[in-house]
Design a protein that fits this description.
The protein is mainly β. It has one domain. It has a 7-stranded mixed sheet with strand order 2-1-5-4-3-6-7, with no helix packed on it. The longest helix is centred in the middle third of the chain and has 10 residues. It is elongated. The chain starts with 5 loop residues before the first strand and ends in a 7-residue tail after the last strand. The relative contact order is 0.26.
């Protein structure tokens, strides 16, 4: 199998639920996606408070972890959990890292091999 082959994979649950994307084959056991924080319904007074006091603050990115699994006919990456994205050390042999763009598309994030 060539390194240039891609396969369409589906994401189930979490922040990119229902998204399908082309990923390099063979698929890795886990995918970590750096996603934008989800906008939740917030009371207008809370929004005003945030604007007045924290106007230069940007919402943190979230790191959503998905695991390759087959649940019946749902073969693809299933949501495991999310946490605030920090400088985590991801293992390139187990994890494929992606970044969610503002247009909701996913693009590859380079991982460095650990010594």
């Amino acid at each position: 199998m060539s390194d240039n082959e891609y396969q369409a994979v589906q994401f189930f649950g979490g922040p990119v639920d229902g998204h399908a994307d082309l990923l390099k084959r063979p698929t890795k056991p886990f995918v970590a996606i750096k996603t934008m924080a989800q906008n939740r319904d917030t009371h207008s007074l809370m929004i005003l408070f945030r604007v007045l006091l924290f106007n230069d603050q940007t919402p943190p990115f979230l790191l959503a972890v998905y695991e390759w699994e087959a649940h019946g006919k749902q073969i693809g990456y299933h949501y495991v959990r999310s946490s605030i994205a920090t400088d985590v050390n991801l293992t390139p042999t187990l994890v494929d890292a992606l970044v969610q763009s503002p247009d909701q598309s996913l693009r590859r994030m380079e991982l460095k091999e650990s010594p």
